[in-house]
Amino acid sequence: MDKVKNLLSPLASGTINDTLKLVVIGGTMETARRASASAWSGFVDSFFLTAHFSQEDYPYDWLLHWLSKQPAWGRSREFDITTRTISRNAVTQTTTGDLLDDDEDDEMLVRDHRKRKVAFEPSPETTHTIYYQGHWLRVTRTKRKKDHEHSAELKISVVARNNNILKQLVLEAKRDYEKDAEHKVHIYMADTTWGLWTWTGARQKRPMSSIVLEPGVKDMLLADCKDFLLSEDWYAERGIPFRRGYLLHGVPGSGKTSLIHSIAGELGLDIYVVSLSAKGMCDNKLAKLMGRVPSRCILLLEDLDAAFTRGVSRDEKSTGTPATLTFPTSSRKKDLDDEEDSTLSLSGLLNSLDGVAAAEGRLLFATTNHIERLDPALSRPGRMDVWINFKNATKWQAEEIFKNFFPCKRPEPPTPLTPEGVATETKPKPRRKAPGPVLEEAELSDLAKRFADAIPEDEMSVAAIQGYLLKNKTRPKEAVEEVAEWVVKEREMREKLKKEKEEREEQERKEKERKAREEKAAEKLTEPAVGQPCAGLDVITVASSTLSLGTASTITCADADTEETTASEGGNKGEKWVSVSSESSTTKSTSATS
Ligand SMILES: Nc1ncnc2c1ncn2[C@@H]1O[C@H](COP(=O)(O)OP(=O)(O)OP(=O)(O)O)[C@@H](O)[C@H]1O
Mind listing the pLDDT tens digit for each residue in 60-113? Predict the structure, then answer.
């Protein structure tokens, strides 16, 4: 008791009393200050209407698109600068700081190639103030994490009596976005870090006429897509999932991707692009992405064959025979779990495409240069209903590409008539002058024919021919005269590249073999300890009764693939090694003493 009194006695002294008073007064004042500050901010906030727009929903894109056009955005004091243009219509700024519209900017780029387009994006976690229809909007882009998932959000606050101003803003942003979309194709890329779709910009629509394919192919494909989009009820009545898949396969540079973009433009659809071989792509992320594809769009799976060169294929999984047989220690098991988590499997892909979460009404387009590498399950009807083979250019294609490439004098279109039949006086739209000479129509046809004669059938890709013409874009006549020489050079170059590739592959094969030999040798050297699993084998049976050589127990290891069984007797170096057949069969003992 005395001890307690001694301990408390300093508290009764004057100094401690004063200190305590100070602490109490200070604490009270601070609490009061905080309470009043939060009350004030609560009071101020009570005047604000706040709307949240999640990245997973359309209004987020509309608003970002709208914001990217606001001059105040460019003058904002905190922003991310990117040379990746948000949209061709986005407010852009040269490095000198002047705001320019697109046409001016193009001119600038011609005059001064060092000047680059710079786009402004809202910095995350910063607030921007924008004046809109008599109101000050406070706009904040935030990143949030919910249920282990990252996503972005746009928060817009405004002082107003009701939410009419926010409704108006969203509608205007939507109208603006859709107006731009009329002439553009919006492209979204799969973000494998967040498992979300990221808007990467809008591309000018590419006219179907600029794609040169054998007659009928484009029309057939377009008609099929249109027919599908109009057949929702037909599919519903028959209980068939409302989806259609198109597999475009064939040589590189033959127009697969270009055709898809063109169709998207023609049908007014957005494109959602997934590269299955992208770093970080796994079953989970793909399923999430597929669940977030809107109902009417083009889903583009690029380089379909590339995805499964590194992952675990469905066949390996389904037979239960993993590619490498291992006995996971706890840390190794964690690695395996992580690996599984970051791997894309064929079954994962099929589930994502067909699963309940998969969007209805989407057009699935898949491209590949190696159709022979595809698993038949992936390309079967129901998943890929229409297949189109893209080949190297025919002579007819070469001729058409040439005609499309060079400008020629076209006859003036007839003057439109008024309802009374009087010709209207219309001012011709000023056209940008194309570089190079403008040919007569007949001359162009003649040159195109001569050009096509020099191009070998089904040997050069359309992209290669286009590349050659680009180099001669102001010299149509010379392009024809020099094309034979180019073909020879191109062949030589391809021969050289082929040789180099073969040499590289041969070297890689040798290297692989060498590594395999080394691994085998290392395996032989590692003697399995008694009671421990044999590396590389997945079934272990301890059969101490089958053999009675020496004193140690015997381990029998069955190779899952070959059913071959070996047994080894433990013991010191220099003692016996025994091989036996499987447990039930008779011992084919080859004992040896080293
Ligand atoms: N049939 C074609 N008609 C018009 N242009 C074409 C055609 N084929 C290729 N091109 C041109 O070649 C370039 C490459 O074409 P694209 O990317 O569409 O080929 P791809 O078949 O998708 O190639 P990859 O398989 O390598 O992805 C584009 O600039 C495109 O304009």
Answer: 888 888 887 887 766 666 666 654 444 333 333 333 333 344 444 444 433 444
Which residues is 556 bridged to in the sheet? 541, 567
pLDDT classification of 37: cutoffs 50, 70, 90: confident
Using CA atoms, how far apart are residues 58 and 173, in angstroms rounded to an integer? 11
Choose which residue among 205, 213, 214, 254 to substitute to test ligand 1 binding: the one with the highest number of ligand atoms within 8 A of its C-beta.
254
Q: How many CB atoms neighbour CB 160 within 10 A? A: 15
User: How far, in Å, from the CA of 461 to the mean position of ligand 1?
Assistant: 8
Report the nearest-CA residue for atom 17 of ligand 1.
Answer: 257
For residue 455, CA distances in Å to 120, 210, 444, 458, 463 come to: 46, 20, 17, 9, 13
Whether pTM > 0.80 for this model: the answer is no
Determine the distance separating the centroid of ligand 1 and the alpha carbon of 286, expressed in angstroms: 27
Q: Assess whether pLDDT exceeds 70 at residue 303.
A: yes
Structure tokens at 275: 């590269």
Q: Cα separations (Å) of 48 from 127, 137, 138?
A: 14, 10, 10
Complex ipTM: 0.98
* 490-492-496-499 Cα dihedral, nearest 10 degrees: 110
- Ligand 1 in reach of 275 Cβ (< 6 A): no
Spell out the domain ranges in the chain: 2-45, 48-182, 196-327+342-390, 531-594
The verdict on the CB of residue 255 being under 6 Å from ligand 1 is: yes
CATH H superfamily, domain 196-327+342-390: P-loop containing nucleotide triphosphate hydrolases (3.40.50.300)
Q: Determine the residue of 271, 369, 399, 462 to mutate for testing ligand 1's pocket, defined as the one with the most ligand atoms within 8 A of the Cβ atom.
A: 462
Considering only CA atoms, which residue is closest to atom 27 of ligand 1? Answer: 252
Indicate the residue type of 312: V
